[in-house]
Design brief:
alpha/beta; 4-stranded antiparallel β-sheet; 2 domains; Rossmann fold
C-alpha cells in the first residue's frame, strides 16, 4: 500500500503538486491520468523518493520514503519516462548491475536476472548492446530492472510513449501479466490505454486529484452523460410531450421523417425502462432505443475543463 498525505511541490511560483492526498491499495492496476503538465511525473518522482517534497509525506507499506528509504524503496520498482539505461552495457550486464545495487548476490542474482528477462521477453537480446536495441526492447529492459527483486508495487511513467502500435499492444499485454503478481501504477495521458488496462483511475489536473474510482463508476456517476436515442413511429409532438414529463430529463428531437422520429434524452441515470413505459401508456410505437453512457474520455474532459476553468477564474 502507498499512502500519500498532503504532498506539495513548487517550482518557483508554479505549484506542480498541490496538497495531494491519495491511497494506492494492493492488487490493482492504477491508471494515473492527466493532461501534460498535470503533475503526474512530479508526483511519481516524489512517491519513489527521486524528488523531495516541499511538504507532506509518502509511506510505502508503512515506511516513510524519506525517513526509511531502504525499506520503502525495496518495496517498489520504478520505470521513469526515460529509462535509466547504460548504452554500453548489454541487458544482462545492466540487470546484474541493478540487481547488485538492490542487494542480490550469487545464485539469487543469476536466477532473478534470468527470470525478469524471461518475463519481459528480452532473453534473446541478453548479449546485444543496449544502444542497438529498438525503443520497444529498451522499454522492456527498463521494466525488467523495475521488477528485479520482485517488489510489491511497480510504477511505470508513460511506458508506451514513442512505441509503434504493435509495441504498444505488447506493452499492454506485459502490464496485464505484471498485474497478476504486482500492484501496477502507470501514468498516461492516453485515455484508451487507461480504459483498456486499469481497474482504478486517478485523474490529476493542475496538481490536484480530481477523481479516483473504477472507470465504470466514474462514467456512471457523471450527471447528464447518459444519452438515450429513441426511435418512435409517427409525428414527434406526442412522443416529445410524453417524454418531457419524465423528471430531470432533457429531450431533443434529432430527426423526423413524418413516419419515424428520432429523439435524444439526457439524464443522470438510465431511463430506458421509464421511457418504454411512458410511450406504451401513450400508445406510441417504440421502434428502438440505444443507450450511450459516458466514456472515460467524457469524464476526463468534463473534470479537467472544470479545473482549468476554476484555475483561470482564480488567476483573473
Amino acid at each position: 500500500m502507498i499512502e500519500v498525505q498532503n504532498l506539495t511541490k513548487r517550482y518557483g511560483a508554479t505549484i506542480a503538486v498541490d496538497h495531494l492526498t491519495m491511497t494506492i491499495e494492493d492488487h490493482h492496476i492504477y491508471g494515473f491520468l492527466g493532461p501534460n503538465g498535470a503533475g503526474k511525473t512530479t508526483t511519481l518522482h516524489m512517491i519513489t523518493g527521486c524528488l523531495a517534497a516541499d511538504s507532506g509525506n509518502v509511506k510505502i507499506d508503512g515506511y516513510d520514503i524519506l525517513r526509511a528509504p531502504l525499506q520503502a524503496k525495496s518495496r517498489i520498482g520504478y520505470l521513469p519516462e526515460q529509462p535509466p539505461l547504460y548504452d554500453d552495457m548489454t541487458p544482462e550486464e545492466f540487470l546484474r548491475f541493478v540487481g547488485e545495487a538492490k542487494g542480490l548476490r550469487g545464485k539469487k542474482l543469476r536466477t532473478a536476472v534470468d527470470s525478469v528477462m524471461e518475463r519481459t521477453s528480452i532473453a534473446d537480446m541478453r548479449r546485444r548492446l543496449i544502444r542497438n536495441l529498438s525503443k520497444g526492447y529498451r522499454q522492456r529492459v527498463g521494466i525488467a530492472q523495475a521488477i528485479l527483486g520482485d517488489p510489491a508495487t511497480v510504477i511505470l511513467d508513460e511506458p508506451t510513449v514513442g512505441l509503434d502500435p504493435l509495441q504498444v499492444t505488447e506493452m499492454r499485454t506485459l502490464i496485464r501479466e505484471l498485474a497478476q503478481s504486482h500492484t501496477v501504477v502507470f501514468s498516461s495521458h492516453i485515455l484508451s490505454e487507461v480504459s483498456a488496462l486499469c481497474d482504478r483511475v486517478l485523474i490529476l489536473a493542475q496538481g490536484h486529484l480530481l477523481a479516483e474510482d473504477t472507470p465504470e463508476h466514474l462514467s456512471a456517476h457523471m450527471p447528464g452523460l447518459h444519452r438515450l436515442i429513441v426511435t418512435v413511429r409517427g409525428e414527434p409532438d406526442a412522443a416529445v410531450s410524453r417524454l418531457r414529463q419524465l423528471p430531470d430529463t432533457t429531450v431533443v428531437i434529432l430527426s423526423s421523417t413524418g413516419t419515424e422520429t428520432q429523439i435524444q434524452l439526457e439524464s443522470a441515470s438510465d431511463r430506458r425502462e421509464s421511457v418504454s413505459a411512458a410511450l406504451a401508456a401513450a400508445g406510441i410505437p417504440l421502434l428502438g432505443m440505444t443507450l450511450e453512457t459516458a466514456t472515460l474520455e467524457d469524464v476526463f474532459l468534463d473534470l479537467t475543463r472544470s479545473e482549468t476553468s476554476e484555475e483561470f477564474k482564480e488567476e483573473v
